[in-house]
Write a structure and sequence with these properties.
22% strand; six-stranded mixed β-barrel; alpha+beta; 42% helix; 5 helices; Cathepsin D, subunit A, domain 1; sporulation
Amino acid sequence: MKVYVDVIILENFIINLFLITITLQTVRIKFSFVRASLGSILGAFYTLLYFFPSLSVVVSLPVKLLIPLIMIYITIGKLNCLVLLKSSGVFLLWSILLCGFIFAFSLMNNPYDLFSAFTLKNIYLKYMLLALMIIYVFAYRTIIFIRDRKSLTDFFYEIEFSDNSKKFRVKAFLDSGNELTEPATTLPVILINKNYLEGFSEVGKGSLIVPYKVINGGKGSLEGFRMNQIKLYKDDKLISTKDAVICLCKDQFSPYDDYGALLSRGVL
C-alpha cells in the first residue's frame, strides 16, 4: 500500500484546524490563526506515528487524550488547567461527532451488507468535506476580521492643522485609554507619524517636553510643540477645534497603515 505523507499531513492539518476553530468558538475563546495553525501542524505530524508499529506506546489512549490538550495550549497560549481541560473535552466531542457524521455518509455512498466487511470505495465525499472545512475556517476568519475592522472605524477621526500656508490632514485613532497631557499647559497630546507630515517644519515652534509612563512601569519623555486651532473631523463633519501638543514619532501605529496619529481623550 502506498502512503503519501504530504497528503496525510495536509488533510489532517485541515481537519485539526477546523476542529480547533469550532472548539474555541464553542467555548468562546479568541485565538490567533497562526497559533491555531501551529497546533494543527503538531496534530498532523502526530498522525504519522500510527504507521510505526514500534511506537505503539506513543499512540496509546493516554497520549491520544494528551495531544488535543497540547494543541489547544499552543493555540490559546495560556496555562489555565480548567480552560485547557474544558476546551480539550469539547475538542474530543466535536471529533467524535465529525467521525460519526463522516461514517454515516460513507455508509450511504458505499454498498454494504451485514454478512461482509465494510469497504470504503467512493472517497469523493472526503474531498467535499475537506473543501467545506477550508471554506468554513476562512469564512470564519474573514467575518472576524471584518467585524474587528468595523468596530475600529468607530474610533477613526481626522485632524487638520496648518503650517503657515500648508495644510495637513491626517487620519487618527482615538485611544480611549490615553490621557496623555503636557504638564505645563495641560493640553492633550497628539502623536503623529512623521511620514504623514511631509514638508512639515518644526522650526520656530518651540519645544515642549512631555513625560509619560506606560502600564509596565516604564517611563520616558517625548518632545513636542504646541499647535493651535487643530480641527477634528468625524465622517467629514467638523466636531471641534482645539489647541493641542503634537509629538512626532517614527513608529507606525497601525499594521495596516489605517491611521497615522493617536488621539488622547482630551482632544474630544
